[in-house]
Amino acid sequence: MIPRTLFSSDHELFRDSVRKFLEQEAVPFHEQWEERGYVDRELWSKAGAAGMLCSHLPEEYGGMGADFLYSAIVIEEISRRGLSGIGFSLHSDIVAPYILHYGSEALKRKYLPKLASGEMISAIAMTEPGAGSDLQGVKTTAVQDGDEYVINGSKTFITNGYLADLVIVVAKTDPKAGAKGISLFLVEAGTPGFDKGKRLKKVGMKAQDTSELFFQNVRVPRENLLGQAGQGFVYLMQELPQERLTVAVAGLAAAEAALHWTLDYTRERQAFGRAIADFQTTRHKLAELATHLQEVRENERGYLARELHDELGALLTAAKLDVARLKSRLADAPDAAQRLAHLTELLNSGIALKRRIIEDLRPSSLSNLGLVASLEILGREFGERSGIQVDMVLEPVTLDEARQLTIYRMVQEALTNVGKYAKATEATVVLKNYDNHVTVDISDNGSGFDVQQVRPSTHGLAGMRHRVEAAGGKLSVASTPGQGTHLHAMLPVRSPRTEAIRPVPTYPAPGPLTGAPRDVA
Length: 521
What we know:
Layout: H1 9-25, H2 30-36, H3 41-49, H4 68-80, H5 88-102, H6 105-117, E1 122-125, E2 141-145, E3 148-159, E4 166-172, E5 182-188, E6 194-199, E7 210-221, E8 225-226, H7 232-268, E9 270-271, E10 274-275, H8 280-307, H9 311-332, H10 336-360, H11 369-386, E11 389-394, H12 401-421, E12 426-431, E13 438-443, E14 465-471, E15 474-482, E16 485-492
Parallel strand pairs: 1-4, 11-12, 13-16
Antiparallel strand pairs: 2-3, 3-7, 4-5, 5-8, 6-7, 9-10, 12-13, 14-15, 15-16
Helix pairs in contact: 1-4, 4-7, 5-6, 5-7, 7-8, 8-9, 9-10, 10-11, 11-12
C-alpha cells in the first residue's frame, strides 16, 4: 500500500494508543456485548479519559482542539477489529458538531464537556416508522407553548438510543412548511413523557444498541432549540456530509481488514501440497482487490483533505485519480483514435480543475494538470516506441486553454523530429513557470544530424514563427506562439548524420477542447 502521508507522527502516536485501548478494553468483551445487545457504559468513560471522544472540540468545551484525522483514526481502529457495537463516531462526529455549531453558549458549556468525558452518551433521532431518508416527511411535532416546546411523536432505528442520556430530536415546528418547518431540539433522558422502547434485534451489529424512542407531551425549554426554528433541515444538510464520510472511513477500514484476513487465510490454507496463496488465480484476484482498495483509499484522502479545509489538497487528489484512470485507459486503448480521446480528456480535466481552483481558491499560481499529465504520457509513449529515454521535468504553469494545446503540439513535434533526424538516446522536457516557456533539451551522445532536417513543420501551428539557428556550438529550434511562450529543442551541432534514419510514428495531439475529438489515422 502507498504510505498515507496525510497522517503525521502525532497522529500515529495517537493511533497506537487507540489500538492498545481497544485491545484491552473492548476486544475481550465484544462477544459478550453482542449477546447482551449493548456495550458497557464504563467503556464510554474510559474512552473519554483516553481522549477518544470529541477530540475535535475546543479545549474550553472539554476537547483537544484536534483535527478530524483523530476522529478518523478512532473510526478506523474500531472498524478494523469488527467492534461494531461501539457508537463513538455518532456521538463524537455527528451529535457533538450540531451542539458546537448551532447551540447557544449555555448549551455548549452544559453538554459538550460531558460528551467529551463520556459522562453523557448521545444520539440523534431522525428516522421514524414512516420517514427514513426523506427527512421532510417526519411526523414528530414540536409546538411552542410559552417558553417551552411540546414534542410528540416516535422514532426508530436510533443508534445509541438505549444508553443515550441526550438526544437531538428532529421535529416539525411548522408541519405545513415542509423542509422549512423542521427544527432540532435537545432532549435529556428522564424528561417526563420521553420513553425508550425495546432494543431492536438486528442481523448484524448486534452489540450496538439500536432503539425505539417515544415522545408524548415532552416539554423542553425554548433554550433547547438548536439554532433557529425552521432551519433544522438546513443544519442537517450541512452536517450530514461528515456523517457520510465517517461511514466511508469505517467501511474502507473494514474492507482492508477483510483483505488482510483473507491474505492470512490463503497463506495458511493448503491445497494440492501448497498454500492457495501460491496459485496464480488467487494472487491475481488478491492483487486486483488490493489495487481497488488503494484507489478508494486515495479517493478517501481527497475527502479527508477537504474535511481539513485543505481544498487545494482535495482538488489535487481528485486530479491525481483522474490522471491515473486515464493513463490506465490510454495503455489499454486499441487504436490511435482512442488514445487521442483519452489525451483530450486529460487536457479537459486539467482545464476544468483550473477553473475550479480559480472559482474556489483564487491562488496566485495555477497548475495546468491536464497538460502536465498529457506531456508525461507523450514522453513515455515516445520513449517506448523510439528507444530514446525521455525525462519529464514538469513544474506548474499558468497558461490559457489555447496555449496548453499549442505547447502539447510543440513538444510532440520536437520529439518526433528528434526521433527522425537525430540519433539521440536521451531527451529532457522541462516545463517551467518562468516567462511561460517550455524547453525540450535533447542529448544525442555525440552523434550528428542534418541541420536542415530538424526544421519543424507548420502542421497544427498556423501563424507560428519558426527558426533554426546554429550558434555557440548548439542548434536551437524555436517556435513562438507569442506572449512569451517558447519551445527550444537544443542539440550539439556536429557533422551531418549519415546513418539510416529510424522511423518513429507520429503521435496525435489532442483535438479541440470542446466537441468530439478528431479522428487520427
